[in-house]
Model the fold of this input.
Amino acid sequence: MRFILLIVALLIPVQALALSCTPWYVEDAYHRATNAEEAYFVVNGTLSFDASALPEVDFSNQQDTPPETFIDATIAGNLMTLTGFNRFVERPITLVVRCMGPWCADAKNSVPTLAFLKRVDGELLLDADPCTPMLFQNPKQSQIRAVLSCFSGGKCVPDTR
Done:
């Protein structure tokens, strides 16, 4: 019986197996940003980019999936300041979409986005990772309130922990 189960397990297609990530919250992104050497800016706005530039996974050649794809993008929205999200910005940025094997970060064009932008050599980068993204698309009001609480020195631990 064990032999049969082993054979069945080996026959399961790799794409049927899922990437298992620890839950990731805006508070986690905030802590990563505040503990980083680079400067971060938080924007609540809309991310725009050419969605056809997103990496596509060929499940028969998963090894050919690039680990990183750099996409020119624009973020337009309100920058977080000491008094809230109240300073309009519109800036070119680079969206960095990371893949782990066949699992790539999810990024959608032209949807509301809470973005933690990292400044590197004068350029703004938005890291999209399958497990620990620095963008939250279609953010809930509770996520907006949470990041504002973190920034103002208030509670900065997800309610689920």
Q: What stands out?
A: The chain has a mean pLDDT of 87. The chain has one domain: 22-151. The two ends are 40 Å apart (CA to CA).
